[in-house]
């Protein structure tokens, strides 16, 4: 394959010539006023154009992969692509279908750039989080399902899996505590589902995605902070300190071990934060500097949670 990248306008030039009259575009009046055969011929012509552009896109992705610079999996970039397409979307095709099409496309092109594999904590044996993972990362992406979050996180730490899909943090699902102490660090990089309007039969659970690479900003994000505080600190006091530091808390999960003097706290805040954000130094009740456990692109189609 040539190393040069030709303009998009030339994307159909390498396609095999169509049979006479088969791929010629009828005028707008021809297909609008034609019978079923004419309409099907127009659909076939459009499918050929879509396929040409898909092959063209894959060629560009190959050049990206050979550049060796950006990470293959960039969830923030993927989210911004889908948001941009939805903003320009018109017509009768449901927005959810557009999201599904591009999720499969992005999964395929990510795999081209070095592979993508999943480790899913799904105690329900495929009933919920496995379905969420398939929805977001592609129906044929390699996947291992485990009964515990520790097993899924171990796969990521050992390089067996690209990402782990884990239950949304709660007082019961406390896997997030390991992100505050684990070396090398793992990071929250996405929240599932990305499309929040759930049809009948779709899994209703929420999940987070964890990887060894830090998240990238999408332009509309939320972040997680991990804190260590005195065990007797109140949620009200901690929320007040966060607001005073210009950090708006959305969700707070507090883990207090019986008899322990220290509580671990996971807080979701608005915006994309990094470890060197100066606001993190303004929290007076923490026992050590807060850790940015990761961030995710805000979901589409309705409020998360």
Automatic annotation (TrEMBL):
EC category: isomerase
Entry EC number(s): 5.4.99.5
Database matches in SMART domains: CM_2
Any one GO molecular function term: chorismate mutase activity
One Gene Ontology biological process: chorismate metabolic process
Segments of skewed composition (Basic and acidic residues): 22-31
Annotated SUPFAM superfamilies: Chorismate mutase II
Ranges for domain Chorismate mutase: 30-117
Signal peptide residues on this chain, from the entry's feature table: none
InterPro entries cross-referenced by the UniProt entry: Chorismate_II_sf, CM_dom_sf, CM_II_prokaryot
Chain positions covered by the region annotation Disordered: 1-31
Biased composition range(s): Low complexity: 1-20
Transmembrane segments: none
Protein name: chorismate mutase
Natural source organism: Rhodopila globiformis
